């Protein structure tokens, strides 16, 4: 069971909460339990599972990543977006999440975010479920 | 098939080996093979799969993370634990591990660790199996 | 359904493209759809999913990791390869990837790489599929 979400990012860098969209995809697929895989088929965007209560957690994370992998550092990749590739690998392209009673069984403070590092763009997110 | 482990961390930062607890959960669920998902439903703790032979590997990793994301750096998140959120995302909240003959099919030197970055606390670890 | 690939790395550090080998394993197992887990049962090697078009993306990533976790920094682990352990945890040991029509449903620019950080060596990569 695979659903593909279309997600539009709004800035060069952004953590965009897609928790509701993933839960909608689970409902559409009629998934009751099992493992939900969320996968980003891009090389300059990734997937983050972290706090969706205080937006400062997201901006702090983007700030730290920018400091750690600065846009101004010289790199070999001619397109100039090597920092975006590196950041995507650091946060990861896939997460697997438990499903219970048709929804993601996340912690109280957790949300699922598309991590955009080279936007704004239209991105695809793959939601894939296997039964438990 | 979902089991929830309760894991108590003993320090502000710690890599706590939970390999035996995950294997016990597999036995309890009667899992023979497939994919085991280990998921941490928290935003300031994560999951590490690395060497469980020499404890210096774990302390080196925590030391490096502290150097990379220092507690003293100013951040926007008012609770003051942004470094813990960032470290959790860097190591990740979920790992998927192969299961064979009812046990995790890990490498010789691998163990599964709860990565505590804002403890000590009682944490939950979700163990979720789908058959192969 | 589990297949084990044998992958020989050619240098101390290398991102070695194993996408074709993983697709061959899927064919051998007769997997049509579902979730493919790729797992590295080692503690100084990991798994990266990123661009396989311009090789500079890979060398930029290795360069950045070397700068972030320098080989010359003193560490407690007596074997001297703590940077390799840390890099492996930063990129991760496992990835889950969607399978459609018997192949990995990757993005246009994505490839799957064994990330060698303490080579050259012969490494094992576990490919594990559960049906969707």
Report on this model:
3 copies of one chain form a homotrimer. Helix content of chain A is 27%, strand content 37%. The first copy, chain A, has 132 residues and is α+β, with helices and mostly antiparallel strands. Chain A is elongated and about 50 Å long. Chain A has one domain (2-131): Sandwich (Jelly Rolls). In chain A, the strands form 2 sheets. A 5-stranded antiparallel sheet of chain A has the order 1-8-3-5-6, covered by helices on one side. The first copy, chain A, has a 3-stranded antiparallel sheet with strand order 2-7-4, sandwiched between helices. Chain A binds chain B through residues 33-35, 48-51, 54, 56-57, 59-61, 63-64, 68, 90-92, 95-98, 100, 105-110, 130-132, and chain B through 1-2, 35, 37, 39-43, 68-69, 73, 75-79, 82, 85-86, 88-90, 92-94, 96, 124, 126, 128-130.
Radius of gyration of chain A: 15 Å
How many separate domains of chain A? Answer: 1
Distance between the termini of chain A: 13 Å
> What kind of sheet is the major sheet of chain A?
5 strands, antiparallel
Report strand % of chain A: 35-45%
Q: Helix proportion of residues of chain A, in percent?
A: 25-40%
At CATH level 2, the architecture of chain A is Sandwich
Please state the structural category of chain A.
Answer: alpha+beta
CATH homologous superfamily classification of chain A: YjbQ-like
- H-E order of chain A: EEHEEHHEEEE
Which SSEs are present, and which pair or pack?
The structure is a homotrimer of 132-residue chains.
Chain A: E1 2-8, E2 14-17, H1 19-29, E3 34-39, E4 45-51, H2 55-68, H3 82-91, E5 94-100, E6 103-104, E7 110-116, E8 122-130
Antiparallel strand pairs in A: 1-8, 2-7, 3-5, 3-8, 4-7, 5-6
């Amino acid at each position: 069971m695979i659903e593909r979400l279309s997600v539009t990012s709004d800035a060069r860098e952004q953590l965009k909460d897609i928790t509701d969209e993933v839960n909608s995809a689970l409902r559409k697929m009629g998934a009751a339990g099992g493992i939900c895989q969320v996968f980003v088929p891009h090389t300059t965007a990734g997937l983050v599972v972290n706090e969706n209560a205080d937006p400062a957690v997201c901006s702090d994370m983007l700030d730290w990543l920018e400091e750690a992998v600065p846009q101004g550092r010289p790199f070999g990749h001619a397109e100039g977006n090597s920092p975006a590739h590196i950041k995507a690998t650091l946060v990861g392209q896939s997460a697997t999440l438990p499903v219970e009673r048709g929804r993601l069984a996340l912690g109280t403070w957790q949300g699922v975010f598309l991590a955009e590092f080279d936007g704004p763009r239209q991105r695809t997110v793959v939601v894939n479920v296997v039964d438990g």
